[in-house]
Specification:
It is built from 1 helix and 12 strands. The chain is mainly beta and 212 residues long. The protein is globular and about 40 Å long. The N and C termini lie far apart (68 Å).
Length: 212
């Protein structure tokens, strides 16, 4: 048998035996958002209309972890909950150009029982990302709150779909938004992520109902 055919056969054998698994897109759960939205660090059973669980296995330099993202939107605002398997900070970035470059980033953590959330922008493929205000922009997280328990950190926040800030991505109802995410074991936002990181797609609803 020719060498290239042998290689092809072995590759197919490994794939079929389960040694190589195709990556599955996370399942997006949908439900009617019946509860009024409240920034309190508690994700209500019917507070959000969509959610998805993003996972990243342990790898070199990362212990592995997961983040559940829940969201709802009306015609003006995005309401978001980040629930990560960490006692440290968590982050989400919107619409990166390449790797992290030009991503509209939100970083958050619980510090001394108080939530901290930063509106940032990434200027390079792997950083740095700095607060919008340091680049001449504005801080556009309207409301936020969080909680920490049982090895998890939860942060809820609200921002306008279109803030008018050039360092924020402008969204519209029904839009599919590419995202990146990361978790760190340290609550100090200046520390590098060391738990998990990944990417995904979150699609806004076209619901015209004004959230509470």
């Amino acid at each position: 048998m020719k060498p290239n055919l042998v290689a092809l056969f072995l590759g197919l054998l490994l794939f079929c035996s389960g040694c190589i698994q195709p990556e599955k897109a996370p399942v997006v759960a949908e439900k009617a958002a019946m509860e009024d939205w409240k920034a309190d660090g508690i994700v209500g059973e019917s507070e959000y209309s969509r959610s998805m669980l993003l996972q990243s296995p342990a790898k070199q330099g990362y212990s592995g972890g997961e983040m559940e993202i829940s969201w709802r939107n009306d015609q003006e605002y995005l309401y978001l909950a980040l629930n990560g398997s960490t006692k440290g900070w968590l982050a989400i970035g919107f619409e990166p150009l390449e790797w992290m470059k030009n991503a509209d980033i939100i970083m958050a953590s619980m510090q001394a029982s108080k939530a901290v959330a930063l509106d940032e922008y990434c200027t390079g493929n792997y950083g740095p990302h700095v607060e919008d205000t340091l680049l001449g922009g504005t801080s556009d997280i309207v409301e936020f709150a969080g909680s920490k328990a049982a090895g998890r950190t939860v942060v809820e926040l609200k921002r306008k779909l279109d803030t008018g800030d050039k360092f924020d991505k402008a969204f519209s109802p029904g839009q599919a938004i590419s995202i990146i995410w990361a978790l760190s074991n340290n609550s100090d936002l200046s520390f590098k992520h060391d738990v998990a990181y990944g990417e995904g797609i979150m699609t806004l609803t076209t619901d015209k109902t004004i959230a509470g």
